[in-house]
Amino acid sequence: MGVSGSGKSTIGKLLAQDLDIPFFDGDDFHPQQNIQKMSEGKPLTDVDRQGWLESLNKLAIAQLKNNSCVIVCSALKQKYRDILNNSLGDKTLWIHLQGSFDLIQKRVQRRADHFMPTALLQSQFDILEKPKNAIEISVDLSPIKIIEIIKNQPHE
C-alpha cells in the first residue's frame, strides 16, 4: 500500500515473481468512471472507491482459498483497509511503501503510461492515514532490499 508512485506495482510484481504466486494490481480493477475522474485531475471520493475496494476484497478471498497472492493498491485510509481485509482475519500482511513527497512526485512525473496525474499526488498525501498494523518500508531502498525485508517478515 502507499500513495501513487511509491513503487507498489514494481515491488508487488517482483515479490510475486520471487514467491511464485499471483500478482494483482488494484489499478487494473478500477471501474472506467474512476479512471476517467482521476484522468481529469479529480480525486476519488469514498463513494467512488467503495465498489473498487469490495472487488479487491472478493479477489483476495477467492485467491486465498487456493494459495497466497500479492495485491497492491493505495489503501490510504484505515476504513479502506478494513474493507480490503473483510473476512480475511490475520491472512493479510500489510506493507506500507513510504517516501517523501518530493521523491515520489519526481517518480510520478517520470511515468508516461499511468492515468494518475501528478496534480492528484498531494490529495493522496493529504488523506493518507498511517497504518497501525503494517510493515513500514522506505522507498529510498532498492527494490531488492525492499523484497528482502518483506520476505523476512513473520507471516502465515
Automatic annotation (TrEMBL):
Keyword Kinase: yes
SUPFAM superfamilies to which the protein is assigned, alphabetical: P-loop containing nucleoside triphosphate hydrolases (SSF52540)
GO molecular function ontology, one term from the record: gluconokinase activity
EC number: 2.7.1.12
Matches recorded under InterPro entries: P-loop_NTPase, Shikimate/glucono_kinase, Therm_gnt_kin
Keywords, comma-separated and alphabetical: ATP-binding, Gluconate utilization, Kinase, Nucleotide-binding, Transferase
A GO cellular-component term linked to this record: cytoplasm
Gene Ontology biological-process entries: D-gluconate metabolic process
Matching CDD domains: GntK
Reaction(s) catalysed (UniProt annotation): D-gluconate + ATP = 6-phospho-D-gluconate + ADP + H(+)
NCBIfam families in UniProt: therm_gnt_kin
Protein name: Gluconokinase
Organism, scientific name: Polaribacter dokdonensis DSW-5
